Amino acid sequence: AARDRQLKADLNRVLQEALVPAVRASAVVELEEAPAALLAEARASLSEDPLRAYHRAKEALRRSPQDPAAAQLLEQARAALAQPEPEPAGDLASRFKAGDLDGALKTVNHQLRAEPEDPKLLRKAVFLLGTLAQVQASRGKWGEAKEHLQHARALFPQDRAWNARIYLLDRIPSQPKAEQAGWIALLW
Question: 20 to 30 Å CA-CA from 19: which of 64, 123, 144, 179?
């Protein structure tokens, strides 16, 4: 009888230990951005990337129309976008032809500074950012890939899959090397 009780106790302990990874894996992950996170990203990118700050502040204001901090950040970003910036050399078509995706993105970003709401330019920028994220991830440059996905999310927040893509990207490095390419393909 004592042996049976010990066996049951051992079996229960082993079952509990076996369930721990399953419980962790089944945890619900919150992918919705908090309004404070939107404003923090807008503030952080204001001096280096006013276009990104503009779109993050615009999204924060859309979610909370009465938020004075979001309205103020949006105005600061508009003012920063109005500051002159040197035009990148080469046009978009020639950069695409040459396979210069970084240069193409600089060209599109420069055009977007003048017209931050242009839907065609926004689609081009998001396409380039998604493609660059895949390229950087395939090279193992996870931080740069994440930055591209976050930038794309800022420009096109209507696509609710950005946070899932960023969440996935954060987990790819821990996957076996042989499986990473398949996961990277899901980023864009």
Answer: 179
The per-residue DSSP string of 128-177 comes to HHHHHHHHHHHTT-HHHHHHHHHHHHHH-TT-TTHHHHHHHHHHGGGS-H
DSSP string, 99-138: T-HHHHHHHHHHHHHH-TT-HHHHHHHHHHHHHHHHHHHH
pTM of the predicted model as reported, rounded to 2 decimal places: 0.81
Q: Specify the residue for token string 């003048």.
A: 114
Residue whose C-alpha is closest to residue 111's, from 146, 142, 81: 81
Res. 165: pLDDT tops 80: yes
Provide, rounded to the nearest whole percent, the portion of the chain with pLDDT above 70. Answer: 94
CA distances, 98 to each of 92, 95, 103 (Å) = 10, 5, 10
Higher pLDDT, 13 or 152: 152
